[in-house]
Amino acid sequence: MNAPIGVIDSGVGGLTVVKEMLHYLPNEEIYYIGDTARCPYGPRTPKEVVKFTWQMANKLEEMGIKMLVIACNTATCVALESLQKHSNIPIIGVINAGAQAAIKATKTHDIAVIATAGTVKSGAYENAVASLYSSSKISSLACPPLVPLVESGEYESEFAFDLVKKTLQPLEKNQFDTLILGCTHYPIIKDLIQRAVGDQVHIVSSATETAKQALDILQFKGIERSATTAPQHRFFATGSLPIFKDIATNWLPIDDVNAARITL
């Protein structure tokens, strides 16, 4: 089935999932929407996030996608279930994938999660980890400054590290051997986060596990792309295109990112 896979996020964070999808699903075409004009989703109400997520999903379904990846933790928390109920295509989120990655990595089952305020408030990671290993101890921290930092593109400065270190300071009182990056924006600043928490902490994200899950579904349903021509990926942003394209070009192994503005 030669239709594309749709990927949606509140901004550029979902590109971290796309990067892994390009590795594990190299023959698949990806259509991506980043809602950069209304990012971040973390402080927004669940009603708003559901509305925005449905708008992106509907736009991509109009383009004929065969599968949808909600590459945003906040949107996964509040919109995944309703979208799955009302869609005829497979739809997956990133919460369970992140929990699975943490359980694979941890030795002590003392796990920390950093995420948006919306994701932390939902308790989604606590529930997902507990469903896999009920004795795990979870510490969660909302990190509102980090998504705007990534979206600005100004994350390669010493100021950026100082901001990350200050934001993560409350975690210093907790004991944990594994840290879940509970927002798909955060892998872009993983090196800064690692410096802040120390090399003894194993950092995991949902990106790799999500890509593997997408591959499993394609194979199970027999809807893998059969075309032998090179995939033509398309990227869309609702906000500033130059910043979006710069971050996409720096992050993804694509020479010429085909990006355009989109109205939802």
TrEMBL record:
A GO molecular-function annotation: glutamate racemase activity
Residues at the catalytic site: C72, C183
GO BP, one annotated term: cell wall organization
Top enzyme class: isomerase
Catalytic activity: L-glutamate = D-glutamate
Classification via InterPro entries: Asp/Glu/hydantoin_racemase, Asp/Glu_race, Asp/Glu_racemase_AS_2, Glu_race
Enzyme Commission numbers on file: 5.1.1.3
Residue ranges the record marks as coiled coil: none
Pfam families named among the record's database cross-references: Asp_Glu_race
Domain of life: Bacteria
Pathway assigned to this chain's UniProt record: Cell wall biogenesis; peptidoglycan biosynthesis
Binding-site positions, substrate: D9, S10, Y41, G42, N73, T74, T184, H185
Family in the record: Belongs to the aspartate/glutamate racemases family.
Biological function: Provides the (R)-glutamate required for cell wall biosynthesis.
NCBIfam families reported for this sequence: glut_race (TIGR00067), PRK00865.1-3 (NF002035)
Designated name of the protein: Glutamate racemase
Record organism: Candidatus Kurthia intestinigallinarum
